[in-house]
Amino acid sequence: MVGAAAMACTHGKESEAPSLEINGNVPQHFPGIGLLGFGAMRWPMIKDENGKDIIDQEKVNEMVDLALEHGVNYFDSAPVYLQGMSEKATATALLRHPRESYYIATKLSNFSDASYETAVSMYHKSLENYQTDHIDYYLMHSIGDFQALETRFIKPGILDYLLKEREAGRIRHLGFSFHGGRKGMDDLLALHEKYHWDFVQIQMNYLDWTHSGEGSAKYLYEQLVEKGIPVVIMEPLRGGQLSDVPAPLADMLKEREPQRSIASWAFRFCGSFPGVMTALSGMTYIDHLRDNLLTFTNFKNLSDEDFSFLEKVADGIQQYPLVRCTRCEYCMPCPYGINIPEIFKFYNDNIKEGTYVVSSEQKNYARTRRKYLLEYDKAIPTVRQADHCIGCGQCLNKCPQHIRIPVELQRIDKYIEQLKRETL
Question: Residue 142, exposed/middle/buried by CB under 10 A (0-12, 13-18, 19+)?
Fold first, then answer.
């Protein structure tokens, strides 16, 4: 979810469209595709009459209409997003518009069952949901290395099936979303001549550009460009972290360009690379969309000085003990009921907002400590808190950020216990 800094940047009332005229002005590095893409992993939710979480279709329709009106035409979903509801909600909104006015991107999310029959069924279900005879951009979901490709797609015969579907025109472009390191990308790109990857989706933002070890976004991007493979960006805001950076760093960004939102810096970073086909934003609220549209109005590439500045901001972020969670919820549900993403969010938010308790010697320690513990209990029900983690490790292979989730939960639980015992 995009953070509070972007949410505060409003452009008129909720029901009013912003005064924007960017049709034809959206920078299009790839003909026909808007540089800002719409990620459908974070649609707004409401409760139904039984108290169940469902997607707010009315809000989805409103955002899709506004996006299409202003040149955003690439919509990315997956069968597994939002407990399986995202793809249908996205399709419902898009089907109200001419098929030629948008591009469909969706995925084959065969994590739990890699059988041929399940994969083919999932693919056809996507065609059915979108009521279309072709998918514009089809991704093999969350591939980190050759082993994942071989186990889930090559051995079951599903990759051969997808290649035939592409040859028949029912898949216009075939690629994969990548969650891995340098060797994984090298091995997959070694297959480019054989399979001809039409595009690849990677996590890319100014924090991951050089701060992700050997799997840095810089390396991944450069390898793809060298092969002439278009790049689709996911997590340009790192799950909202780059729209809600720690206060001292937010002050630096606002001082440099007071009229721009914090989030806009991250999007301008992504949009400044010519190999980028589109940068996906998982926009939950219409104000997120409006702010992003303003960022891409008469788009201006970052200068070398801007890039150097953002590198300093990234260095600053690294100094904070944040958990690298993007709240994708791939780790959920936890078999022991732990609300992993919300625990990490609560912890990260307090660090960024300066309400993190450092020691008993800090100013207003007693009040800050008491408030932290009270807010933790309010945000995370007791039975879903970090102390319930038994370290089973079932979440580890599911995390695209490769977070050592049990270790981080234990670290947070130890910190909470120290607060309770006043032993910091």
Answer: buried
Among 109, 203, 75, 119, CA closest to 398: 109
pLDDT at 6 over 70: no
Q: Is the peptide bond before 333 cis (omega within 30 degrees of 0)?
A: yes
What letter would DSSP give residue 407? H
pLDDT tens digits, residue range 135-193? 999 999 999 999 999 999 999 999 999 999 999 999 999 999 999 999 999 999 999 99
Q: How many CB atoms lie within 10 A of CB 320?
A: 14
Alpha-carbon dihedral sign for residues 183, 187, 190, 196? negative
Q: Can you read off the two tokens belonging to residue 151?
A: 């186990």
Q: How far apart are CA 309 and CA 248, in angstroms?
A: 14
- Which of 353-357's residues contact partners 24+ apart within 8 Å by CB, and which partners? 353/247, 354/246, 354/247, 357/419, 357/424
State pLDDT tens for residues 69-115: 999 999 999 999 998 999 999 999 999 999 999 999 999 999 889 99
**Whole-model pTM?**
0.81
3-state secondary structure of 316: helix
pLDDT band at residue 362 under the 50/70/90 scheme = confident
Give the burial string for 340-359 (b: 16+ CB within 10 Å, else e). Answer: bbbbbbbbbbbebeeebbee
Coil/strand/helix, residue 32: coil
